[in-house]
Design a protein that fits this description.
This protein is an alpha/beta fold. 34% of the residues lie in helices and 16% in strands. It has helices spanning 23-33, 54-57, 69-77, 87-95, 108-126, 149-155, 175-178, 196-205, 223-236, 243-248, 269-276, 303-315, 347-353, and strands at residues 14-18, 38-45, 81-85, 130-132, 162-163, 253-258, 261-265, 283-287, 295-299, 325-330, 336-341. Helix 1 links the parallel strand 1 and strand 2 (38-45).
Length: 355
């Protein structure tokens, strides 16, 4: 009489993928899903993410899809996405990055270690086995170099639980590979800045429409944004910031006529509407006798400063050629006064004050 022995069922392994919304993280997750691993996505919200903010506000970005690319990627992959708010803990990363900044105010290496570290906590709490990222050796000058890959794994606490499917064959085997949870042979050996292998793989896997890479999804890589952030810190003499600061640095013209105050000037209807939400927090100005922008004043002002602010407000209105323009100045309590001013005309000074 023969006895059939029931083999213990092979445990399905679970991985969390850091999903930025870009092509690399989409492909990295797909490569692991195709090996039969249960994958869920995680996206960390720092406040400095590009998508969904200016695209939704500005006319020039109207052609861009109004979508959260991380959510869109998860939908393409058919996986659950966990969006985690890390605005507060991220402040320390931005203010005191141990590896310094990139070309602008981007603390790329510290940022990646921080994100992976957050994922380490997440897999412990949620009983997942390992972490996937879309990193590729040589793709980013600061955080994705052969010598920085081990730094991220070590400083984040992930160690060999961090798998980078797109370049894994160029790196030492991780625990998922050594344990046979994933087949190392089916992982990839992408490296360098060329995007060709990613585009080819995307086409092969059937992804037609994906977010185009443009230096990450972070405003901190943008020189103009970084200059505004540095200006804000210098003016306040502290690196502290709140989410409202982060949002307002993304919109309008920023002009600092004097060290004690700056103007945020709406460039179009969408920005003006967005800035209206801040009228109770700032003194604001708008033109009465001609169509013009909404202007917020950040800082402390006296009567002479308000006069200058009104003249600059008139300069950016449709009445800039008029002899005088009527400008309303309204404080945080809704108390307003009208000033009749000559539009500011010193263009050279304006250029110097522009942030």
């Amino acid at each position: 009489m023969s006895h059939s022995v029931n083999k213990p069922e092979k445990k399905q392994r679970k991985a969390v993928a850091l999903i930025s919304g870009g092509l690399d993280s989409l492909l990295a997750a797909k490569v692991i899903i195709d090996q039969g691993i249960h994958v869920e996505g995680i996206n960390f919200y720092t406040g400095f993410c590009v998508e969904g903010h200016t695209h939704a506000i500005r006319k020039k970005d109207k052609a861009k899809p109004k979508r959260n690319n991380a959510l869109w990627s998860a939908e393409q992959l058919g996986i659950q996405l966990h969006i985690v708010d890390v605005i507060e803990p991220y402040k320390e990363v931005l203010i005191n990055p141990s590896h310094g900044y990139g070309a602008n105010m981007n603390p790329c290496l510290d940022c990646k270690s921080f994100m992976v570290g957050q994922a380490v906590e997440w897999i412990k709490e949620n009983d997942f086995d390992f972490i996937i990222t879309g990193e590729v050796i040589g793709q980013r000058p600061m955080s994705q170099r052969r010598d920085t890959m081990p730094v991220i794994a070590a400083e984040s606490g992930a160690s060999d639980l961090l798998l980078r499917p797109l370049c894994a064959q160029l790196l030492p085997p991780t625990l998922p590979e050594k344990e046979g949870w994933v087949d190392r042979e089916k992982l990839l050996d992408f490296n360098g800045r060329t995007r060709k292998p990613q585009i080819e793989l995307a086409n092969k896997l059937g992804f037609q429409d994906f977010a185009q890479p443009a230096g990450g999804c972070c405003f901190l890589t943008d020189k103009n944004y970084s200059d505004r952030l540095v200006d804000l810190w210098q003016a306040r003499d502290t690196k502290a910031y709140e989410l409202d600061d982060v949002m307002l640095l993304k919109v309008g013209r920023h002009i600092r006529p004097k060290p004690n105050f700056k103007l945020i000037i709406g460039r179009e209807e969408g920005e003006n509407k967005f800035m209206e939400g801040y009228r109770k927090q700032f003194i604001h100005l708008y033109t009465i006798s001609a169509k013009g922008p909404l202007v917020l004043i950040e800082g402390n002002t006296d009567e002479k400063d308000l006069q200058l602010a009104a003249e600059i407000t008139a300069r950016y209105s449709q009445g800039r050629q008029e002899k005088t323009v009527t400008v309303a100045v309204k404080d945080q309590n809704g108390v307003s006064k009208l000033l009749n001013v000559k539009p500011f005309s010193n263009e050279e000074k304006l250029r110097d004050w522009y942030i």
